[in-house]
Hints:
Helix content is 14%, strand content 33%.
Amino acid sequence: MNKPLTMAQTKRPGVLAVHSLDEFVIAVPDLEVAAEFYSLFGLRVEREGNALGLYTFDTTHRYGRVILGAKKRLQWLTMGVYAEDFDAFKEHFKSLGIQTVESLDPTSSDGIWIKTPDGFPVQIKACQKSSPSMPPMRTFAPESNGAGRSPNKSKVKKVHPQYLSHVLLFTKSVTASLAFYENVLGLRLSDSAGDDLIAFVHSPHGSDHHLLAFLKSDDYGFHHASWAVESIDAVGLGSMQMAAAGFKEGWGVGRHVLGSNYFRYIQDPWGGFCEYSFDIDFVPHTIDWPAANHPPDDSLYAWGPDVKPDFGLNYEASGKEFVSNRA
């Protein structure tokens, strides 16, 4: 295991806001298939009772859980807050008339549970900050000095992501979701595109350009989890790593405009995606990001292959069954 990645506990004074997407929880119809996919992707997958825990090899933090269900479906999100802000959040919810709901987690009753405008629950929990507090590590090839600098293909090591950068959710209303995560949970708009099409939010306590993003759909759902890697080589090598295992479908390699990161999306066995991401924009806790709404045609990617036809299709809502063509 690599040296554990530690996150500084940066905090913007006088601001009540969640600091991290502490964990996402999804259901899938086959845990064995899920364990294989996420292990091949480069995550550390731990069997924990009737669930799978998703970790990186650079931290002991559990970023996600996968449980058994009839189909792939987003179950809940856990958002982290600082312990000294927990009671203030209780009062904040009360002042807004936010109703609490019963815990869905059979392993824990911690925190406060509320529902989003889309109808799925969010847990608010006091915990350590797991979102990054400084720009992500970047590794580039050394300057040319009379010798070859490319990694030797026969000596390439398996790509292991460093941390969970963000999650993109399908939502019935980008406008309503944005209002909820801003006004109720204290996140802030980074950028958006189009009229109720897509929006990106970050934590004012410091996070990548987006901690969460929202894409318009007929229903809520889990589009992708984005995992940070330390080089553009790792993005390409990760793509080859998954292709060699039969997971060739996806999108990229390319570079996003909003967020600026280099990307490769790997389509999972249920039609969603996992993203290898390198060099995403970072929003320190000391600045206000210049948020703006952008033309859709000039906001998705600067370069890369054509977008996969079903990239924006919500298989959790469409009624269509995704059929994997894994080689």
